[in-house]
Amino acid sequence: MLPSHLNGHSALGRRRPRLSAAAGESPAAAGVEAAAPLEEHDRIYFQAYSHLGIHETMIKDRVRTDAYHAAIMRHQKFIEGKVVLDVGCGTGILSVFCARAGAKRVYAVEACEIVVQAREIVKANNLTDQIVVIHGRVEDVDLEEKVDVIISEWMGYMLLYESMLPSVLFARDKWLKPGGLILPSHATLFMAPVTNRERYEDSVDFWRDVYGINMSALVPLAKKFTSEEPSIETIGGENVISWPSVCARYSSSASIAIILQLRNSNLSLQNTKFHQ
Ligand SMILES: C[S@@+](CC[C@H](N)C(=O)[O-])C[C@H]1O[C@@H](n2cnc3c(N)ncnc32)[C@H](O)[C@@H]1O
């Protein structure tokens, strides 16, 4: 579960972290056949995705869903008549988009219980000839053939927070034909400093006077807590105090190690306007 302070700031706060798959571990390095066993935090993670609410939030996110639809249509020529693997199909929405774009077959793989409804959705849309829904982790399932295209919505907060990318890379190394297409194929993570006076006052200054009691002794702890823990919030543009800098890039043709190298890179922040 997300710590409670990560919940409730926005509906998107419902995306769950899964920390089992170490973000730096390339499946190629780990050996394609050697999938990590399902652990308790995986079970909690997949259980979270069994709730309808998270799928509703994702699908209603038009920027996200339209972007996937547009990408599929842009690559229609590559998808038509081809075999697609949808890693973590959820309700099956991306599989349906691919089938409608003319895919010969779509393997829709999903580890959580929403797969039951995904199967019904495929049936209700008369796509059972094209879409094969498979319940299981992509690391554990067996497909009848290699695929031409892998599609997946794996991006969590801070791009990697959900730790799903290693599963996609595992699927790539095991199931994608040479020269195959991955959607999305690239991702860039930007970082920018922000200020949020209201939030600071609420979390830090709050301790200066609590019911008339001076509790300032807690201010250093509160400062540590607010700066150490990630927080998912919607803030206004006026709170962004510098231009964003690229801090990580992902390319589907490279190992994830590329992203982690950038951890040590220096961010140069331009035109930073600090509040007095
Ligand atoms: C962000 S959701 C995307 C759902 C759907 N593709 C969509 O776009 O609405 C990610 C989904 O991937 C599933 N998932 C994550 N890791 C997986 C894995 N290793 N094998 C199979 N499914 C996985 C989760 O259970 C979840 O339903």
TrEMBL record:
Single Gene Ontology BP annotation: methylation
MF terms (GO), sorted A to Z: protein-arginine N-methyltransferase activity
Assigned keywords, A-Z: Methyltransferase, S-adenosyl-L-methionine, Transferase
Pfam families: PrmA (PF06325), PRMT_C (PF22528)
UniProt entry tagged with the keyword Nucleus: no
Domain Protein arginine N-methyltransferase: 186-245
Gene from which the chain derives: LOC100282299
Family annotation (InterPro entries): Arg_MeTrfase (IPR025799), PRMT_dom (IPR055135), SAM-dependent_MTases_sf (IPR029063)
UniProt-recorded name of the protein: Protein arginine N-methyltransferase domain-containing protein
Keyword Transferase: yes
Organism: Zea mays (Maize)
